[in-house]
Design brief:
Layout: E1 4-15, E2 18-29, E3 33-37, H1 44-51, E4 59-64, H2 69-78, E5 80-83, H3 95-106, H4 113-119, H5 133-145, E6 151-155, H6 163-178, E7 182-187, H7 190-196, E8 199-204, E9 207-213, H8 214-218, E10 222-230, H9 236-239, E11 244-250, E12 253-259, H10 262-269, E13 273-280, H11 284-303
Parallel strand pairs: 3-7, 3-8, 5-6, 6-7
Antiparallel strand pairs: 1-2, 1-4, 8-9, 10-12, 10-13, 11-12
Keywords: ATP-binding, Nucleotide-binding, Transport
InterPro entries: AAA+_ATPase (IPR003593), ABC_transporter-like_ATP-bd (IPR003439), ABC_transporter-like_CS (IPR017871), ABC_transporter_ATP-binding (IPR050763), P-loop_NTPase (IPR027417)
Protein name: Putative ABC transporter ATP-binding protein YbhF
Amino acid sequence: MAEPVIQIKDLHKYYGAVHAVEGLTLEVNKGEVFGFLGPNGAGKTTTIRCMLNFVFPTSGELRLLNKNPVEHGPQIMKEVGYIAGEIALYDNYRVRDFLNMLEDVRGEKGALRAELLQRFQLDESRKIKNLSKGNKQKVAIVQAFMHLPLLLVLDEPTSGLDPLLQLEFYKLIDETKQRGGTVFFSSHLLEEVQRLSDRAAIIKKGKLISLETISELRSKNIYNVSVHYKGREPKTQDFGAQNVENFTLIDHSAQLTYKGDVNALLEILNNYELVDLRITEPSLEDMFLAYYENDEETADTDKS
């Protein structure tokens, strides 16, 4: 049986009337790379802050590395590598002094420190306040990974990195997984989640929409359809309004995302005089947007 490294049960976090996280439940297993997807304001960062005891949850249960973050926060943080969504470092420190300080706090030398400084082309002698956003992100990556943590909690970790260094970061995630480490990372870059994750959770307005493997997400019956036609113009209701997203008509061409059985789709299209037809597998972004549209419709129905 898989060993859970992160356990979140019925987590709620309210800021007055704002429900930042509402009833979130999920587990992340040892050795897993877990993607946490959602737009700005979805509740991703608030969830992470609750996990790491930076803010207290309104209610619910949290365990990291089989420990309660409220009761064992300092002990947990020695075994965690963390990258914040908004990097805040000690600007007057040199990179060397900042990393030395973290080693002192953790009580151990960073085994990967020298290697990571070289891989990410980071000069230890420079003052942090003089670094670009990308170089500050490199500092954040080095400090998070250098002590070989059991768990990495990463909030938008590749922000500010150029494409080559993003690839280096991806290698670092793969290496972490190979040595048995666990990674929980939030991102809005869906190709990044597809590249790295074993499973992904989709969150919106603090609520979990879906929790599946990447292959399961891709196996949904969702298709991108491009049609060039003569004669009668297609209409959304012809396909079933609940089955269609992103429907556009331009110069005898129709573009749409169809959710449903492909045979039913072909039967509908057979009613038109087609000049050209293309049906393609959706990108992970299309899958993501389809989930959000479904959730909006469900919420509206519940309110009516």
